[in-house]
Amino acid sequence: MTVKARIERIGEFVDQEVVLEGWLWNKRSSGKIAFLNFRDGSGFIQCVVVKQDVPEELFDLAKGLSQESSIRVTGIVRKEERSQIGYELTVTNIEVVSRTEDYPITPKEHGVDFLLDHRHLWIRSPRQRAILKIRAEVIKGMRAFFDENGFTQVDPPILTPSSAEGTTNMFETEYVNGENAYLSQSGQLYMEAAAMALGRVYSFGPTFRAEKSKTRKHMNEFWMIEPEMAYVEHKENLQIQEALVKYTIKHILDHCPTELKVLERDTAPLERVVAEKFPIITYAEAVKILQEKGHDFPYGEDFGAPHETELTNHFDLPVFVEKWPANIKAFYMQPDPENPDVILGADLLAPEGYGEIVGGSERIHDYELMKERFAQENFDDSYNWYLELRQYGSVPHSGFGIGLERTIAWICGIDHIRETIMIPRTLYRLYP
Q1: Contact call for residues 300 and 311 (beta carbons, < 8 A)
Q2: Residues 308-328: tens digit of each pLDDT
Q3: Alpha-carbon distances, residue 118 vs 43, 91, 424 (angstroms)
Q4: How far is Cα 18 from Cα 276, in angstroms, rounded to an integer?
Q5: Through-space distance between the first and last CA atoms of the chain, rounded to whole angstroms
Q6: Superfamily (CATH) of domain 119-420
Q7: At what angle do helices 404-412 and 234-255 cross, to 10 degrees?
Q8: What is the assigned CATH class of domain 3-98?
Q9: In the record, which residues are listed under signal peptide (predicted)?
Q10: How far apart are CA 413 and CA 252, in angstroms?
Q11: CA distances from 394 to 164, 170, 220 (A)
Q12: Residue 316, phi-psi category: left (phi > 0), alpha (psi -120 to 50), beta (remainder)
């Protein structure tokens, strides 16, 4: 009896007849054989139609199929060492479900704007499918890490009355009662409240920043994972971040070898990340390294992309840069008791030019100090609940945020962050 199969599990059906349901990606043919590159969403497989083994009308049908026509293909699964997946299908029948004409994205080169205008179709290509599969596995791996380490997922609100770091780069809307409301740029403040209830928590969801940035590392809608942990101080916070990154990279190496091959990703740098300890340097040490390497970089400024690349090239590993000047970091970050001008926080810079993927810190837990910060920031009453966290049962606590798309871009080794999400939202793009 012919069974329905998926390409991702095709190895379970060697020498059996199966039905695959999907689409024709492309084809080539000679006078006697037609090769159909078929996809079903779970993968790609070559389907071989041999003229002498099938009715003439079936061979003509195979040769006449158009790109992205939806079809059901019946055939015998064969081992094939030359195949990327190790198998191919010897076709015995084809049923056309829907014929496609004039598919816009052809094997020829297309401009980026054209491809983004057709992003809803572009994601069908092998490369884009591989990136989205890796995205799904990154999420799965991160969730597994948190599940295995005693974290509880909590979902903070997306509509907020204020911001975590100022409203200048936020999307504003009017709430149902006429008040100003904003699309969240971070769930961190709410997650601190959740940590006081559940100990170790994380959020995972979309964030929105109305920055007018056109760099390859920025989007206006992206996804963040934001853990917060009660009774965790700065050093332990870095240890947890490193463990999460290593766990995630190993998960991808173990579960996405085919996708990494499609992307032609050199996995040696990723394997090194799993195997070696991440270096930790202070901001002051980072500035010294940059200056010694010829950068005219003054103490007290944030790093740009060239500076982050220089630092990671120096170590050839993800590197923590800790103890930043307090005046260029957020109000809630705990000052270093040995030097209150710097904070107990760090950014994790990914190697190979990908830059910051994690930012975190120990949070201020002292009520009086937080009151001082509130006065300096001129906060209104919409932040009172956050101050109360320091008034009722405050404890040392820490947290961080890891940008999903930046992490995926690094793992995949791709140039632009816009390929790491299904439909990107960038400065000039709200379509499709």
Answers
A1: no
A2: 999 999 999 999 999 999 999
A3: 21, 31, 12
A4: 45
A5: 43
A6: Bira Bifunctional Protein; Domain 2 (3.30.930.10)
A7: 50
A8: mainly beta
A9: none
A10: 13
A11: 19, 29, 34
A12: left
